[in-house]
Design goal:
Largest interface: A-B, 53 and 53 residues
Keywords (chains A, B, C, D): Amino-acid biosynthesis, Arginine biosynthesis, Cytoplasm, Lysine biosynthesis, NADP, Oxidoreductase
Strand order of the largest sheet of chain A: 3-2-1-4-5-7-6
Distance between the termini of chain A: 31 Å
Number of domains of chain A: 2
CATH superfamily of the largest domain in chain A: Dihydrodipicolinate Reductase, domain 2
CATH architecture of the largest domain in chain A: 2-Layer Sandwich
Shape of chain A: globular
CATH topology of the largest domain in chain A: Dihydrodipicolinate Reductase, domain 2
Number of helices of chain A: 11
InterPro entries (chains A, B, C, D): AGPR, AGPR_dimerisation_dom, AGPR_type-1, LysY, NAD(P)-bd_dom_sf, Semialdehyde_DH_NAD-bd
Oligomer: homotetramer
Family (chains A, B, C, D): Belongs to the NAGSA dehydrogenase family. Type 1 subfamily. LysY sub-subfamily.
Structural class of chain A: alpha/beta
Pathway (chains A, B, C, D): Amino-acid biosynthesis; L-lysine biosynthesis via AAA pathway; L-lysine from L-alpha-aminoadipate (Thermus route): step 3/5; Amino-acid biosynthesis; L-arginine biosynthesis
Subcellular location (chains A, B, C, D): Cytoplasm
Helix content of chain A: 25-40%
CATH class of the largest domain in chain A: Alpha Beta
């Protein structure tokens, strides 16, 4: 193993997912996982899937020097502790929203004041399919948000290929699982209240709109619903192009963008049970699926995009970005398939 | 009890729901439930909730004379057997799509040829909140479809009050439960394949668009997703009005339409876990909920509407319509509350 | 309506269930629901199924005088406030464990010291199928616990009929839903951690053993598992009788005990999907189901018992007991059927 | 890659799981997957997790010569086609029950007549933790059944260490997920009927008792319940030892048997949410978990055992056995961790 790594905020869901991925990664050795609340407990105490892993949480105030530090802390923590993170590691991959936006102006529009606005321009936003060319050698990487990632992956090829002009009205109706609420929960995420729901979770003004605007260059109408699954984000994008769009154009646009992408699959129609992108089909993996249907009645293009919010929407994307940043094989530690069947992903 | 009733197609999900409702209804006595496959079995054999009910399925070819016949048969059966139904009963309430549309032209656009097109004009479409004035004395009633009902209930008050003009672009993104697929199932609705999904179920061209067009006078962009619940239909309508719309206008429109409706509730914001319409909140009942949020960023109105597809979207609506048709108290047999908590409605 | 009622602890799950039942009860008028945390909020704020109910929570320190007070407070509260409860109401029905056991000795064995041990002998344990003869005129009623109720309902007829002697080894393996954990939750009941589980919840020493011992006169080996449903308790009792037991004896024992019981159903075999007692079949209702199978290989009798823990295991049983205590028709307000299908009850 | 492999019966759930495992296995190359119904379809058509895998189903009548053939066909097929299987491959690993029992007498007691009883003695039963010493060089391997595997893994160390004598009464109460019913389904496994259940699935006389008897040398009282998860089998074994058993003895017995086992974990108590074996903790993996609690009241030992029925209970165990048979590193292709959180495993 060529690189040492640490996970700050190791007891949360994305922290646990990073530990799982790094544990199976051929090039990384995990030397530290921090947790203030669970110091000295094994990582398996919080993450039962990792009960066989020989590692205990340590206090976040004492960071080990490592090659790569992954920060899986709540929004706001990374901007406070960024100097300590960069002192400890050559490469910092932040999974929070703290360094995703490009300017203080943008940040202030959606969040409440940034402690270290001067660093915003330094950080590389990481959605490797979008901008992998910026990542090699990057020392501060901001891994993309889950709902933004799902949306961008579905729409961007259509803009790149000119199938869409960028002036269209776009409605994005997202369905997400309960892991987006994080570990710990509260009344709204308790099992009796949360199971079996279709709940408007962010009817309007979800902060991921900021990332979509910045990286897609398009303002979208964005609504997020919570549904009964644990992992997964499915974005349905209803787009109204100026003129008719053909199936061939759509296929060709996705092929152009994703034909060589190791983690992207285009799924549109065919027979069988699974004809479109579904979170179940990618659960637990770094794969993303995109697909579409054309509505003959109203010249609408319906784009479907599905990811695992904790993987391609968070920890998987972060490891993918670190692979690119360090010059490791892109798929290292991420090339495994998902499960079928799987109940609620 | 003042009226006798029968349920044709009593072994399916909506047939069972009708039996449950009629069993608890103060004015109806169920004298027959038919099922070709389960003849002579008790109704509890198919509907375990009704294991205490003393009634056995009989062959559908021998219909008892009754005051009201509820037909809960697959689409296409009612148009074939309508004469026998009308011979047996003074009032026929059909829960299929066979008699919902007003003209053969409309029907042919969405379905494959109607056996008895001359009856289409005679049948009254029943969505009591929309057109209860047409129902008293009606002898052939076509109970509205679940996804259409959810959509129409959410949008119609806004047109009636002039908040929307009817020229707007409207995207309707519906999420439905597995009972819409009916009893019996197939590979797509088997538990391992169906649980935990967000699956594009009718990406475009869902037949309920026909009802919406006809009764709302508006063409909508309509997409249906299957999600992990058993009962429930939640319609999210993304509407782009020509000019700014205020919260007051919205509240006022819903109050005007639904202020005196016994089964409609408007839910929009407030604190707590349940701030908007949710299928869970109305599961098992004839209640419908509507609510909304206004997106300040793009002058979009987001309308939420939730019903139980088997109740207000089917059997409950049918009994409601029968109550109105016969001059019974509207809420008779339907006034009970739902459950909380309930896992997956 | 003949009686006024109040619900102390109205914002919890069983409090909400009581409000639902009393709202639909022909003889009760709810005049007060208390909640310290949600004072002045509507009951629909906590219980979305009751969004149409015109009632607001009030402070529990000021109790209205009523005919019947239902206490749905956490264990330990009733024994502290019992004098205030009895001052406010002629009849107090307590849903907690505070007054279920008959003696201080019994109580101390399973709980930590009773504030008012002298009242234990006064309180009537209420499992109406077991001891309805004690209830008429009772002024302090302790409604039975859910897991104990399921177990007792399954086994008692066999002892009464002499099919079992009472000396048998009995293993009771119970599966329960998430509502047993109450509203509010914590990490263990958060949706991501709680969904899809089979979790040993009380591997040994569950306190409901005390009730079983006292009211069944038998020590059982008792283990409770949490599974993925919201409502429901299913007890599987593995019993090893001294000699052979026939199916006829079993049927006869249940018929003898439950033949005239309005809320009990015996279900054992037959065809179809639902051949045995299941929580789904009774979800939302006051019905209980019992059934059995005989293992030819090892002369074991397997008894299945299913209830809705919030209904027959709590609020339904409490209203049933109040009906009997006041001389109201036993089934008043409780005679409705459950739902089919229903996702997770 | 050193060995070629084929999967006969590749479109079913265990067939798909084998394909997933072999696709990620460093020593196997899959050269054929058969399916009569889906000939020429990609494997991703049936297994959406494998949409990226470049392999199409072929007709089962034309088997390619391979080093190892995995048969994932329904019970009864392997015994019919065993000669063709052995002609095609040096090593046959059968996942059905056809060759699990050691003698025709045993087989006839639980099943209906064996076509090739003379082969029963030749086949090696494979539960590697139990009998890995028999596997090297084996050419016909019968992979153990899921419920039997869970039970045997939990109990055997206690017999081996003398904590239990083998004369005890043992009640095994198993909870399983819907994948045990296989792909395709029927009414009982349709989502509306199957979700949220606690259903007695095999109240008595489950055929896996035969394996337990044969390989554990003990008759057990065995009952299987279906609960709401897709993957997973959890066995709770209630054992009544002759004399007192201490926690130390239990720990020591499990340490002795499983201390060096790569796939076994002992989990018993401690804090946190996950204190005992749970199917969720091992979902998607070849890990098995065992744990216990001692009931002070009735000198009962409660043993918990959890596996993924499709992995350690089927495909994972089969690959594990093939690894041992061929002298490959035991954990090759199986060493990955599971997911956390995961909705319904």
């Amino acid at each position: 193993m060529s690189y040492t790594a640490s996970v700050v905020g190791g007891s949360g869901f994305t922290g646990g997912e990073l530990l799982r991925l790094l544990d199976g990664h051929p090039e990384f050795e995990v030397v530290q996982a921090t947790s203030r609340s669970y110091e000295r407990k094994t990582v398996g105490h919080q993450h039962p899937n990792l009960r066989g892993m020989d590692l205990r949480f340590t206090d976040p105030s004492e960071l080990e020097p490592v090659d790569v530090l992954f920060a899986a802390t709540p929004h706001g923590v990374s901007m406070e502790r960024i100097d300590a993170f960069r002192d400890a590691a050559d490469t910092v991959v932040d999974l929070s929203a703290d360094f995703r936006l490009g300017s203080e102006t943008q940040y202030d529009e959606w969040y409440d004041g940034h402690d270290r606005p001067e660093l915003l321009a330094d950080a590389e936003y990481a959605l490797p399919e979008l901008n992998r060319e910026n990542l090699p050698g990057a020392d501060l990487i901001a891994s993309g948000g889950c709902n933004a990632t799902a949306t961008i992956l579905g729409l961007k090829p259509l803009f790149d290929a000119g199938v869409l002009s960028g002036d269209e009205d776009v409605v994005v109706d997202v369905k997400v699982g309960s892991s987006e609420g994080g570990a710990g929960g509260g009344a709204a995420s308790s099992h009796p209240e949360r199971s079996g729901i279709v709940r408007p979770y962010a009817p309007t003004s979800h902060r991921h709109e900021a990332e979509i605007e910045e990286f897609l260059g398009l303002s979208v109408s964005f609504t997020v619903h919570a549904v009964d699954m644990t992992r997964g984000a499915a974005a349905t994008c209803h787009v109204f192009p100026d003129g008719p769009v053909g199936k061939k154009d759509m296929w060709s646009a996705y092929r152009e963008s994703y034909g060589d992408e190791p983690f992207m699959r285009t799924v549109a129609g065919g027979g069988g049970v699974y004809r479109y992108p579904e979170p179940k089909a990618v659960a637990g993996t770094n794969y993303g699926e995109v697909g579409f249907e054309i509505d003959p009645g109203n010249e609408r293009v319906v784009v479907f995009s599905a990811i695992d919010n904790m993987m391609k929407g968070s920890a998987g994307q972060a490891v993918h970005a670190a692979n690119v940043a360090l010059g490791i094989e892109e798929t290292a530690g991420l090339a495994f398939q998902g499960l079928h069947p799987v109940g609620a992903p």
